[in-house]
Design goal:
seven-stranded mixed β-sheet; about 25% strand; alpha+beta; globular; four-stranded mixed β-sheet
Length: about 250
């Protein structure tokens, strides 16, 4: 196993590969948006650790107080994403990255680490069965099957913000809350704009561009949340088929 890892900093951010499956050699607006988002977060204690290679092997986490998620708690890390793909699977990279996060949390005097999960594994969320092998347990739930997992070092636990439990908004049109933390978000937004324009579908695309907005969202959120007819639908990015299924409801 290659043990050469690198942590992103404000100094190396512009030149480092950001690890996602996007392989474009040309400028990519989603990747550019991610770099800009990260440049504002790294000074807040945000950690992006990656294999020093053009590969999808990385972990991304941040202090819960400054993490752009509607979760409350004191002195926790929030784990956004742990991803190992392709030929790098099964070689111990995920274990190494998780152990780094755990060691960092303990050395920093954190109370624990938490992450978003669900009673059935959902795409675009880190593998909760893998996290549970390290001792993560469910500490809070929503009525529609989402779970907050935490590994506590001191017996305290975080929880979903009360506004998460609402899962409803007044607007009945397709409404998507998003931030630029994921490089795939930009192209997904462009696809949805194009589809809705071509098919006369009213849509509200609401960029979550401050920490306060993220903490006050009416649904669970990792970087994306979809509502239709006033009801929460998914944290998954959409393809056209998925979008059509939602609009048929």
């Amino acid at each position: 196993m290659n043990t050469d890892f690198v942590n992103l900093t404000t100094e190396n951010l512009v030149n480092e590969h950001l690890c996602c499956i996007i392989r474009s050699k040309k400028p990519h607006q989603g990747i550019d948006a991610k770099r800009q988002w990260l440049s504002d977060r790294l000074n807040e204690g945000h950690v992006f650790r990656k294999l020093n290679a053009r590969a999808t092997v990385f972990i991304e986490y941040a202090p819960l107080e400054t993490a752009w998620v509607p979760i409350t708690g004191d002195n926790y890390y929030y784990l956004y994403c742990l991803w190992v793909s392709g030929s790098h699977k099964g070689k111990g990279y995920g274990k190494s990255l998780m152990e780094y996060c755990l060691a960092d949390a303990k050395e920093s005097g954190k109370s624990g680490i938490c992450m978003l999960g669900a009673n059935k594994q959902k795409s675009w969320l880190s593998d909760q069965s893998f996290a549970k092998k390290f001792g993560f347990t469910v500490v809070d739930t929503t009525d529609n099957g989402f779970e907050l997992l935490a590994l506590s070092f001191d017996g305290t636990t975080p929880k979903f913000a009360q506004n998460v439990k609402k899962q409803e908004i007044e607007s009945k049109e397709l409404t998507i809350y998003y931030d630029m933390q994921c490089p795939f978000v930009y192209q997904n937004i462009e696809m949805i704009k194009q589809y809705c324009e071509m098919n006369d579908v009213p849509v509200s695309l609401i960029q979550v561009d401050t920490l306060q907005k993220a903490k006050e969202l009416p649904c669970v959120f990792n970087n994306w949340g979809v509502f239709y007819k006033g009801n929460f639908e998914t944290v998954n990015l959409l393809d056209v088929a998925y979008l059509k299924r939602i609009l048929k409801k």
